[in-house]
Amino acid sequence: MKRRIERGLATGVALAIVCAMFVTRAEAIDLSGTWEGKRTCTGISGGDGTHDNFPQDMIVVVSQTGSALYFHFINDATRYNGQLVLDASAPGKRGTATLVECGTSKDLPEKSEMVQVDFTNFTKKGLFVGPHKMSGDSVLLWQHGDQFTCKWNLTWMRSHTEAPQC
Amino acid sequence: MKRLLGNRLASTLGGAALAFTCVGLLAPSAHAVSLTGTWVGNETCTFVTSAGDTDKTGKMKNLTVKISQDSGDPTLHHMYFVENNRYYSGIVLDEAGNSVKTQKAVATFASCPTAPATPGLADLPVGSEMVHANFVFNLVGTVLDKLATGFSLVYAEDGSQQSCKWNTFKRVDDTDPLIPPC
Fold first, then answer.
1. How many Å lie between the alpha carbon of B142 and the closest alpha carbon of chain A?
2. What would the pLDDT profile of A102-134 be if each residue is shown by its tens digit?
3. Lowest mean pLDDT among B51-60, B126-135, B149-158
4. 20 to 30 Å CA-CA from B32: which of A44, A71, A84, B163?
5. Closest chain A residue to B125 measured between Cα atoms?
6. Residue A160 pLDDT > 60, yes or no?
7. What is the CATH number of domain A30-158?
8. What is the ipTM of this complex?
9. Which residues are within 8 A (CB) of A96 and not within 5 positions of it... i.e. 6 or more apart?
10. pLDDT by residue (tens digit) across A49-78?
11. CB burial class (10 A; 0-12, 13-18, 19+) of residue B48?
């Protein structure tokens, strides 16, 4: 009888720990992984001053370390570092992040860019039910003096890790 | 002999003319409109505080930015946003297809502190900002030049993350405010 009680207690504790782990995982936002999508840019070409608009496919590796955020935009071989803040009213579901491209400075070298995105973590009653989504804007000074604003739209696709760097 | 000298002279002059033409075609245009002066206008921002609260400021009116064209590089400009107490450097690009009445240009500015965070750390420099703005200059008449539309992203001094629209800033004074470089 005593052994049964002990076994039951052990099972209950184990189940509670497992449940706690799942709930914690479901409620915390971790944006790390490979994201795919598109950005659409509108602006002026530096070469001849004409209007230029273009869509661009994006594959972005994202690494989150606490509230620090790192983007590696594979297609353009550009990297960004910045930070996120979780929405105060729904910290497990939404947030905002601002990142700056690694070469960016007051001297405005080519590829200077600042990005701000809102992200959504689809959950229902604390359980993850869909992919993360990320959308936002950037101000971009591209090669040859091209000047653009861009709209980003990305969806989390798969797990991936990469150490943040600049 | 005289004809030979003449041919050589013509050839030399022709070569020089061709060289000048090539240099003129290949060299980047040094011309750029000047944004120098004091501009007054409105801005609307949406921001997320460092605690994660979202808010909208509504329209902030009669904001002032002062801009000076760099003395050495006419495309380079130095800007001071009075209400935000923030300095910027920016690059102006003339748009093609301007008429005799108006000229358009775009500019991208970065505030002086703008830089990425340290990899793995949430330490984005406060006051980081990039601005994209469209200008319309009136070449005839008395209509004021204007910053027609603008858009900026900010990581502000209070840790908030802001997205702002700049609306119809007008150049109320073209006196050089002598804004220094970053």
1. 26
2. 999 999 999 999 999 999 987 666 666 667 999
3. B51-60
4. B163
5. A82
6. yes
7. 2.40.128
8. 0.82
9. A84, A85, A87, A116, A117, A118, A119, B48, B54, B161
10. 999 999 999 999 999 999 999 999 999 999
11. buried
Site of tokens 């830089």? B115
What confidence category does residue B17 fall into, taking pLDDT thresholds of 50, 70 and 90?
Answer: very low
Identify the CA nearest to B125 among candidates B46, B42, B182, B58.
B182
**Domain-embedded: residue B116:** yes
How many folded domains does chain B comprise?
2
Cα gap B34→B75, rounded to integer Å:
8
The conformation of residue A107, written as its DSSP 8-state character, comes to T
In 10 A of CB A77, how many CB atoms? 8
Residues B56 and B25 in one domain: no
- Domain residue ranges in chain A: 30-158
- The verdict on a CB contact (< 8 Å) between B130 and A68 is no
**Nearest neighbour of A100 by CB, restricted to B108, B121, B124:** B124
Measured distance CA(B164)–CA(B63) in Å, rounded: 13
Size of the A and B interface in Cβ pairs below 8 Å = 151
Show Cβ contacts of residue B140 under 8 Å, excluding neighbours closer than 6 positions. Answer: B100, B101
Dig out the tokens for B155 from the structure.
């990581």
β-strand partners of B120: none
Q: Do residue B102 and residue B22 come from a single domain?
A: no
Q: Are B140 and B9 in contact (CB under 8 A)?
A: no
CA A102 – CA A150 distance, rounded (Å):
18
CA–CA dist A102, A73 (Å, integer): 11
Domain span at residue B1? 1-29
Is B118 found in the same domain as B65? yes
Quick one: which H or E segment has residue B118? none
